UniProtKB/TrEMBL annotation:
Protein name in the entry: Delta-1-pyrroline-5-carboxylate synthase
SUPFAM superfamilies, sorted: ALDH-like, Carbamate kinase-like
Enzyme Commission number(s) from the entry: 2.7.2.11, 1.2.1.41
Domain of life, per lineage: Eukaryota
GO-annotated cellular components: cytoplasm
Keywords: Amino-acid biosynthesis, ATP-binding, Kinase, Multifunctional enzyme, NADP, Nucleotide-binding, Oxidoreductase, Proline biosynthesis, Transferase
Family, similarity comment: In the C-terminal section; belongs to the gamma-glutamyl phosphate reductase family. In the N-terminal section; belongs to the glutamate 5-kinase family.
Function: P5CS plays a key role in proline biosynthesis, leading to osmoregulation in plants.
GO BP: amino acid biosynthetic process
């Protein structure tokens, strides 16, 4: 058993657990109740109750809820002149008294809808000094748990004798975190779960991108390394209080996990042994060697697994892909739950709409991905193909064969579907793979990685595909040129450019997707409208979406340009113009032609002819995908021959530039490089070649006695 397995082995014996819900989980940023999170939490507790777990809750939030209700009451009963006066904050004890009643009423309502009964227990610090109280506490809680009732504890702030209940940290407990730890010890719980508004304990403030999530807290290592940020926006002590309570409980023998209360199923995941949050355990110092696997170790393991994969028959490799496709469909519901959680978190974090659009797995996406994998599995095996066979001399046969590149590092943002495509291509091409996804898709990537690697047989090993999560940042991975053979970045132009300038490892990808559609004067305008609209609005966040519309000047005079512009506006596309288009169409001027909107917006410019369009594309484009709509085939041929882009289309939407649509099965990305692979990169782009020479004892010996034939024997 590995150190990691031992660190989670205690979970199989957990029967009684204490769950502490922080104020930041109970309330939203505006102070109102987070009904969605509370509802999801109650559903988890109901499921645990049904599974036979004894669940004890400790909840915060009463003071904040009471303050909100009292503010509303004061507002309703105040005159206009009253509102002009300085508003004095409410007494904390009054807030606690009002809020406790409301909070428990809410819990009772939510649990009642789930056919679960809850009970309220208010305690103070002084209560625990009384032995009779503690004895009665045991008996009452045991009686409630036997009846499958959920005891809900809270400190009775309304009558607490502590002089400063939000600052005084004296006594047996000093906030609900320490109360939860005390109850876990007093009631002999097997596990304490502290729910927070972040994933767990970080090495620094969670908002600092340099901070790393600590999976297992080891006092000897982490005590001096951690830098705490600000206290909770609404509670008393934030992460500092949670860590203090967790350490006290853990070193007294109660395992503790600090994890996010925002995720819909984190408590269940903890009990299932998934590595969510931060674990505190009295034996954690014995697991000091159980460090998260770093990028180098992952790369070496991936290479070893890839060699085992290559040793399998073509049919066995095909079977693995088919099993991956089946596993994705079988776990579609779970995948969507995790993806929905990522999308909600991204929305709450205020991330860009285009990023959220790429993050979301839309209905039917899992089935589509599974079908793409099956199509890839049914393609001819690309590994070990004889590309060229030459007889060098009598009895000396040379073969040039296709071969995997080795270990690939894919750095991608937002799109969890990219993980599936890339993983399936890696399996088909016999490559090892390291994946570094964006933190905004952390949950989606984790579940997809688990589903895929679980489907890989032990004869190959799930380490064929490594998911780098926390320890290795991108700059560290880019230094591993001795164990990583190719980097493929998928994300913003800023990400791609930074990677290209930061590594000695070959990079395959494109920095921008500035795709053009040029509508010639000979164009069928009904066709042009269809092509332009599809290229822009089918999926505006895609790298193959149209970002610039170029139109022949004659279409201005004929009025046909106005019809095209009207259709774009009707679909909600925001238009910006070049110098000529601004004057003709009365639209705002684009600050630059070299701009990727990734949204429902585009640039429009008027050009003299196809040659001017070609010059514009070469000057301002990104050599990704460009299209001409024209009935004049001579003009079209000029455009197709002279536009120096990875993909050039005639009378077809730029959205066709896609590995699946090209029949490649899937793609790891679209390359605008001119070396190795260009355009949508499928299996062939992940292969290199090697030479195999078959002889019968021949030696060079100064080329004496060797008669070279160099006869082409390729079949």
């Amino acid at each position: 058993m590995s150190d990691l397995d031992r660190s989670r082995a205690f979970l199989k014996d957990v029967k009684r657990l204490v769950i502490k819900v922080g104020t930041a989980v109970v309330t939203r940023a505006d102070g109102r109740l987070a009904l969605g999170r509370l509802g999801a939490l109650c559903e988890q507790i109901k499921d645990l109750n049904s599974l036979g777990y004894e669940v004890i809750m400790v909840t915060s939030g009463a003071v904040g809820l009471g303050r909100q209700r009292l503010k509303h009451r004061r507002l309703v009963n105040s005159s206009f002149s009253d509102l002009q006066k300085l508003q004095v904050d409410f007494d904390g004890k009054a807030c606690a008294a009002v809020g406790q009643n409301s909070l428990m009423a809410l819990y009772d309502t939510l649990f009642s809808q789930l056919d679960v009964t809850s009970a309220q227990l208010l305690v103070t610090d002084r209560d625990f000094k009384n032995k009779d109280f503690r004895k009665q506490l045991h008996e009452t809680v045991q009686s409630l748990l036997t009846l499958r009732v959920i005891p809900i504890f809270n400190e009775n702030d309304a009558v607490s004798t502590r002089k400063a209940p939000y600052e005084d940290s004296s006594g047996i407990f000093w906030d609900n975190d320490s109360l939860a730890a005390l109850l876990a010890l007093e009631l002999k719980a097997d596990l304490l779960v502290l729910l927070s508004d972040v994933e767990g304990l970080y090495s620094g403030p969670p908002s600092d991108p340099r901070s790393k999530l600590i999976r297992t807290y080891i006092k000897e290592i982490h005590q001096s390394e951690i830098t705490f940020g600000d206290k909770s926006r609404v509670g008393r002590g934030g992460m500092t209080a949670k860590v203090k309570a967790a350490i006290n409980a853990a070193y007294a023998g109660i395992p503790v996990v600090i994890t996010s209360g925002y995720a819909p199923a984190n408590i269940i995941k903890v009990l299932q042994g998934e590595r969510v949050g931060t674990l505190f355990h009295q034996d954690s110092h014995l697991w000091a060697k159980d460090k998260e696997i770093g990028g180098r170790e992952m790369a070496v393991a991936a290479r070893e697994s890839s060699r085992r994969l290559q040793a399998l028959s073509s049919q066995d490799r095909k079977t693995i892909l088919l099993e991956v496709a089946d596993a994705l469909e079988a776990n579609e519901k779970l995948i969507n739950i995790e993806n929905d959680a990522d999308v909600v978190a991204a929305q709450e974090a205020g991330l860009e709409k285009s990023l959220i659009s790429r993050l979301a797995l839309k209905p039917g996406k899992i089935k589509s991905l599974a079908n793409s994998i099956r199509a890839l599995a049914n393609m001819e095996d690309p590994v070990g193909c004889i590309l060229k066979r030459i007889e060098l001399a009598d009895g000396l046969l040379l073969e040039k064969t296709s071969s995997p590149l080795g270990v690939l590092l894919i750095v991608f943002e937002s799109r969890p579907d990219a993980l599936v495509q890339i993983a399936s291509l890696a399996i088909r091409s016999g490559n090892g793979l390291l994946l570094k996804g964006g933190k905004e898709a952390r949950r989606s990537n984790a579940i997809l990685h688990k589903v895929i690697t679980t489907a890989i047989p032990d004869t190959v090993g799930g380490k064929l595909i490594g998911l780098v999560t926390s320890r290795d940042e991108i700059p560290d991975l880019l230094k591993l040129d001795d164990v990583i053979d190719l980097v493929i970045p998928r994300g913003s132009s800023k990400l791609v450019s930074k990677i290209k300038s930061s590594t000695k490892i070959p990079v395959l990808g494109h920095a921008d997707g500035i795709c053009h559609v040029y509508v010639d004067k000979s164009a069928n305008m009904e066709m042009a409208k269809c092509v332009v609209l599809d290229a822009k609005i089918d999926y505006p966040a895609a790298c193959n979406a149209m970002e610039t519309l170029l139109v022949h000047q004659d279409l201005v005079h004929s009025g046909e340009l106005n019809e095209l512009i009207a259709d774009l506006r009707t679909e909600g596309v925001t238009l910006f113009g070049g110098q000529r288009a601004c004057k003709e169409l009365n639209i705002p001027q684009a600050h630059t032609f070299h701009h990727e909107y990734n949204s429902m917006a585009c640039t429009v410019e008027i050009v003299d002819d196809e040659h001017a369009a070609i010059d514009h594309i070469h000057q301002h484009g990104s050599a990704h995908t460009d299209c001409i709509v024209a009935e004049d085939h001579d003009v079209a041929e000029v455009f197709l021959r002279q536009v120096d882009s990875a993909a050039v289309f005639h009378n077809a939407s730029t959205r066709f530039c896609d590995g699946a649509r090209f029949g490649l099965g899937a793609e790891v990305g679209i390359s605008t490089s001119r070396i190795h692979a260009r355009g949508p990169v499928g299996v062939e782009g992940l292969l290199t070649t090697r030479w195999i020479l078959r002889g019968s004892g021949q030696v060079v010996n100064g080329d004496q006695g060797v008669i070279y034939t160099h006869k082409d024997m390729t079949l």
